[in-house]
Amino acid sequence: MGKTLKKIVLLGPQASGKSTQAKVIMDYLGIPLIATSHILRKVVARGGSLGQKLKEYMDSGVLVPDDTIITLILGELGSEYCMNGYLLDGFPRNLKQAEALNTSCGVDKIFNIEISDKVAMKRVLGRRICSEGHVFHIEFQPSSKGDICDICGKELYQREDDTEEIVKRRLAIYRAETEKLLDYYDKKNKLVVFDGDKPIEQVSEDILKYLQEHAE
Ligand code: AMP
């Protein structure tokens, strides 16, 4: 019998540790990560009118229109790269996107990393990333090379949308819209909840334990 877990969605507010936990899941299940914000940033970096429009949405912390994001992500999931499954980070974010996923490539389980707004804010304000999408934290997970990425040597910077005001707005959007997804997936019996306020290594252990028990 094949693996029962190969299509996973990772949900959780900003700075719930999704990138760190994504690596744990990918390594264990051998599936690729499809990180929405990284895909969007690649389109932005290419320039052009679509890139410019996406940048405006992202810089102001509001969601990119559903039709645009659905086309981009379902295009990725239909590629050969995702043939053996995928781990989605950042998609779906609302019911329309969830329905689009449901009627196309589908999903086996939703892993929700729950975290309080207070912890989210503290983590976001210290977050630093590089242009390859590697993520550090000045306090909890600093690069040994200061403001240079340990992994690829590129410069680390603070995202333009990682300011207190924009983070508050993003958290409010998350609570208002994305949390409806929890209900939606709970009713489908696909929701698995992890306590993200715990130290990051402890959350990784909880996730690994779940995978050991549920993936063949
Ligand atoms: P994140 O790092 O996941 O907060 O994403 C950064 C920005 O990318 C968001 O503020 C949105 O503008 C955009 N974005 C990421 N994922 C989605 C999505 N599933 N739907 C619409 N917009 C998205």
Give a quick set of tags describing it.
binds adenosine monophosphate, alpha/beta, two-stranded antiparallel sheet, 216 residues
Would you tell me the structural class of the helices and strands?
Answer: alpha/beta
Query: What is the chains' assembly state?
Result: single chain
Low-confidence stretches: none
Strand order of the largest sheet: 2-3-1-4-7
**Major beta sheet, specifics?**
5 strands, parallel
Give me the Rg, rounded: 17 Å
Order of helices and strands: EHEHHHEHEHEEHEH
Count of runs of 4 or more consecutive helical residues: 8
Number of strands: 7
- The share of residues in helices is 40-55%
Describe it.
The chain has helices at 18-29, 36-46, 48-60, 66-77, 95-102, 117-125, 164-187, 200-214; strands spanning 7-11, 33-35, 86-89, 109-114, 127-129, 135-137, 191-195. Helix content is 48%, strand content 13%. Helix 1 (18-29) packs parallel to helix 8 (200-214) and helix 6 (117-125) packs across helix 7 (164-187). It is of the alpha/beta class and 216 residues long. The protein is built from eight helices and seven strands, in the order E-H-E-H-H-H-E-H-E-H-E-E-H-E-H. Strands 2-3-1-4-7 form a five-stranded parallel sheet, with helices on both faces. It starts with 6 loop residues before the first strand and ends with a helix. The site of adenosine monophosphate has 17 residues, from helix 2 and helix 3. Adenosine monophosphate is lined by residues 14, 36-37, 40, 57-58, 61-64, 69, 90-91, 93, 97, 161, 170.
